[in-house]
Each structure stands twice: as C-alpha cells, then as structure tokens.
Automatic annotation (TrEMBL):
Residues 3-107, 108-220, 226-335, 336-373 form the Cadherin domain. This is FAT4 protein. It comes from Buphagus erythrorhynchus. Pfam families: Cadherin. The keyword Heme does not apply. One of its GO terms (biological process) is homophilic cell adhesion via plasma membrane adhesion molecules. InterPro entries: Cadherin-like_dom (IPR002126), Cadherin-like_sf (IPR015919), Cadherin_CS (IPR020894), Protocadherin/Cadherin-CA (IPR050174). GO terms for cellular component: plasma membrane. It is found in: Membrane. The keyword Ubl conjugation does not apply.
Length: 373
C-alpha cells in the first residue's frame, strides 16, 4: 500500500484449504486479524461464495498509513474449521508501506553562523549546511541552492553573492574575492529541495561575518590656516604650542586595531622645531611649534609625516607638508662699516657731497626696507 492510500483500498489474499470436507471443512466466515494490527490500520473483507464452497478474502486499508512512522506491518490472519474440536490455521501477511513525497527536507539548524577573514582565497570552505528528509529514495535525495539575496537582505539573485553552495554536499564556499571595507557581513538563504514529485523544500539562514585584515594603508590630509591656503605658514615669533596645521588620518580598516593610527614627523624636523599632538577628536592631530623659530636662519621647512596603523603587520604611509616661516620685524638695520670717515673743506656750500653710508636689514619687504635720517 502507498502511504497516502485512503480508506477502502483492498488487496486480495489467499484463502485457506482443509483436507477435511463438509462439516469439518474451512469456516470461511471466521477469518480475522489476530496480531500485528494494533493500530487498526487494516480490516478483512470476506465475500462468501453463493455455493457455500470457498470465499474471496481481501485485506482492506482503513487509511492513516505513515511510512515514516511504521514502514512495515506483519499481520497474522487466523481462520478456523467447522469441526469439533475446532482447529485453526494462520496466514502471515507482510505489508510494506510505499513511500510518497510527503516530508520536506529539514535543516539541522535554522541559523548557521561563520566568521571568515576577508583575505580568504576564492574556493575556500566557509561552512556546511545539512538537511535530512524522512522520505526515502529520490524523495529523500536533497539538492542545495542559494536563494537570491545580498548582505542587506534585498536580494537580486544568488549571482550577486560572493558565495556558492555545493548542491550535493551543502558546503558553502567563497566564489569571489571578499572585502571587509565594502561589506562586513552577508545573510544567505539556503534552500534544500528533494527530488520527489512534486518536489518539497526547506530553508535555513546562514550568517557569514567577515573578519578585518590589515590591507589598507592610512591616508593623511592636511588643513591649513586660513582654510583657503594651499600651504602651511606661521610667524617666526610664534610661541611654542602655536598650531601650524591640522592633520587628519583615515584608515578603511576596522578601528579596533587595524584602524588605530599613530602619527610622527619622520624627516625635515632635525632642529625639533615642530611636534605632533593628538587631539580629543578621533584621527585628528595637530602640528605645533615646539621651539623658537627664526626666518632669517631657516625660512621654510619640508616636513615628512609618517602615519602607521596598529595592525599586524602594521602598514604606514608618508605625507609631506611645506611650512613657510613668515617674517616679522625682529631685526634692526645694521650699518657696515659701523664707522665712516670723510674730509670736507670748511667753506663748501650746503648740498656738497660728503660720503655714502649703507645699512642692511635681514627682514623682508617693508620690514627690511631701510630709511635714513
């Protein structure tokens, strides 16, 4: 019987024979199931021959069969003769319940989770999903596939995912290169479908989180004063602590470690006239004056700034900033020589040339323009 057999379906059975005859022969009305029918799934239908000799015996289903619960039955049918004492005979009926596709595949978990480094190679195994089907044969032959979806859950087809699933083993592998900085996790819907007719399916979710690796160098940008300026500048009489430039750093990696950045001046600061200070604002540092400046001695600095993250291994990048020292009027004109000698006749008229004096000022522009009086 198929397990979806309804009540009333019947199969013919062999009837009993007896070497005796007449009143000692088979009592065909005495057939009954005496064992193996505890669930009451079967009954006997006896049709007596109008001649009184022989009968037709059918095993009739009462319905409610379930192969997954009880795949076989061993029924014991008893019959008696009409003699005295009454003698009994037995027939063992082996009933096999045939499978139909009435059970969908069921996953071992409703949610699978895995973590994978973003630099894992294409083809690497991430996790394995497993489903079981209580049916048998092709009704229990399962194939896996990824339904449409992406990390946001919107989904436009499994082709948009950087993962693929082996249809037979359920192993999910990397199909395309991963990038933590583009997407940090993916939610996949995995479908298990049997090969029955009609096919039945089950679903489970697979949550895959990417682990950041240090694959991005820090990036450095400078901001000057005023904001429209294209270079850094500071007065030569600026006090220590004066801010020369703002330095912002960014790192596409996770800030947990790979994105934490230290900043230092690598070159161009041999006189230690500048220093880098971190601020309370994340990833913002300040380049400040650290010692007295003198434009007349060093008019400009070319600083090389090194930014290094704390990843393993650490990555770094350099950036250069030119600092122009602005002149202030901090130098007096100086005569050279400091003493001049001239001779003139006492009767020379006013306006007569006597001598030329010369003074210089190391400052710039108006600060270095000398007037005589």
């Amino acid at each position: 019987f198929k397990e979806d057999t309804g009540s009333g379906r019947q199969l013919i059975l062999d009837t009993a024979t007896d070497a005796d005859s007449g009143t000692n022969g088979v009592d065909h009305g005495s057939y009954r199931i005496v064992a193996g029918n505890e669930e009451g799934r079967f009954r006997l239908n006896i049709t007596l021959n109008p001649s009184g000799e022989g009968a037709f015996l059918h095993l009739v289903s009462r319905g409610g069969l379930d192969r997954e619960a009880t795949p076989t039955y061993q029924l014991l049918v008893q019959v008696e003769d009409k003699g005295e004492p009454r003698r009994r005979g037995y027939l063992q009926v082996n009933v096999t319940v045939q499978d139909i596709n009435d059970n969908p595949p069921i996953f071992s978990q409703t949610l699978y989770q895995a973590r994978v480094p973003e630099d894992a190679p294409v083809g690497a195994s991430v996790l394995q999903v497993t489903a079981a089907d209580a049916d048998e044969g092709t009704n229990a032959d399962i194939r896996y596939r990824l339904e449409g979806g992406d990390g946001s859950g919107a989904g436009d087809g499994a082709g948009s995912l950087p993962f693929e699933v082996d249809p037979e083993s359920g192993v999910i592998r990397i199909r395309e290169r991963l990038d933590y900085e583009v997407q940090q996790q993916y939610s996949l819907t995995v479908q298990a479908m049997d090969r029955g007719v009609p096919a039945l399916s089950g679903r489970a979710e697979a949550l895959i989180r990417l682990l950041d690796v240090n694959d991005n160098e820090p990036r450095v940008k400078f901001r000057y004063f005023p904001a429209t300026s294209r270079f850094a500048s500071v007065d030569e009489n600026a006090a220590p602590g004066t801010v020369v430039a703002l330095l912002t750093v960014s790192d596409a990696d996770s800030p947990a470690a790979n994105g934490n950045i230290s900043v230092s001046i690598l070159a161009g600061n041999e006189q230690r006239h500048f220093e880098v200070h971190s601020s309370k604002v994340p990833n913002l540092s300040l380049i400040k004056v650290a010692a007295a400046l003198d434009r007349e001695r060093i008019p400009a600095y070319n600083l090389t700034v090194l930014a290094t993250d704390l990843g393993s291994p650490p990555l770094s990048s350099v950036a250069r900033v030119n600092v122009t020292i602005l002149d202030v009027n901090d130098n007096s004109p100086v005569f050279y020589p400091v003493q001049y000698f001239a001779h003139i006749q006492e009767n020379e008229p006013a306006g007569t040339y006597v001598t030329t004096v010369s003074a210089t000022d190391p400052d710039l522009g108006p600060n270095g323009t000398v007037k005589y009086s």
